[in-house]
Design brief:
Distance between the termini: 21 Å
CATH superfamily: SOS response associated peptidase-like
CATH topology: hypothetical protein yedk fold
Shape: globular
Helix content: 10-25%
Strand content: 35-45%
Low-confidence stretches: none
Largest sheet: 5 strands, antiparallel
Mean pLDDT: 94
Length: 218
């Protein structure tokens, strides 16, 4: 599962590709390392048009009486038949595009420690987009030293089988990548019965390793 990625292209480039009409990000910083629970840009549908806005990565886990969640934040979506995810997946108003320039997976094949391995389209790190969903949530989020209470905008994104390019490093999964305009538009506008077909690995050669052994891709 992907729990680290980067977005190092500016908001103007994101707006142009996604045709976002409204930019609520302010002066969006360069983000060479986005971890769970951190703020990152998403593009979502609104009644006034597409909107670029900052959101916090990771849905809260379902509350099951008598059990403690294994993960505090659900950052990836694999089982799209789950009743937890379907209410958001089925509605285009809850789908979003998650801009990224690279993502990291742990390489556990190199001995006693995992080595972060970064994948991008190529060395120039052009923009690509994960297939995401978003929701509102009330509660406390953020680092322990600076908890923020109140309303939060949260997002998560889909994963699928490991792609040809990623599998030698990480055989479990790959983010669902929307690599062209047709895929992005289908995700943002099509009924779920059509959009769900986008949950598939990218073709061989779509990704390459651009950095290793670092927790950020500057």
């Amino acid at each position: 599962m992907c729990n680290l990625y980067s977005t190092t292209k500016g908001q103007a480039a994101i707006r142009e590709i996604t045709r976002a009409m409204h930019d609520r990000t302010g002066n969006m910083p360069n983000l060479p390392a986005i971890f769970p629970d951190k703020m990152a840009p998403i593009v979502r549908n609104t009644p006034e048009g597409r909107e670029l806005i900052m959101a916090r990565w990771g849905f809260p886990p379902p509350s099951i009486p008598g059990s403690k969640p294994k993960n505090p934040y659900l950052t990836n979506i694999r089982n799209t038949d789950s009743r937890f995810w379907l209410p958001y997946l089925r509605k285009v108003e809850h789908r979003c595009l998650v801009p990224a320039t690279s993502f990291a997976e742990p390489d556990n094949n190199q001995g006693s420690r995992s080595i972060w391995t970064w994948f991008a389209r190529d060395e120039s790190r052009p923009l690509m987009f994960f297939a995401g969903i978003w929701r509102d949530w009330d509660g406390e989020r953020g680092p322990k030293a600076n908890r923020v209470s109140g309303r939060h905008l949260l997002f998560s994104f889909l994963t699928t089988d490991a792609s040809h390019d990623v599998a030698p490093v990480h055989s479990d999964a790959t983010p669902v990548l929307l690599l062209d305009e047709d895929a992005r538009e289908r995700w943002m506008t099509s009924p779920w019965e059509e959009a769900r077909d986008l949950q598939a690995p990218p073709p061989p050669g779509s990704l390459r390793i651009v950095a290793t052994d670092t927790k950020e891709d500057a």
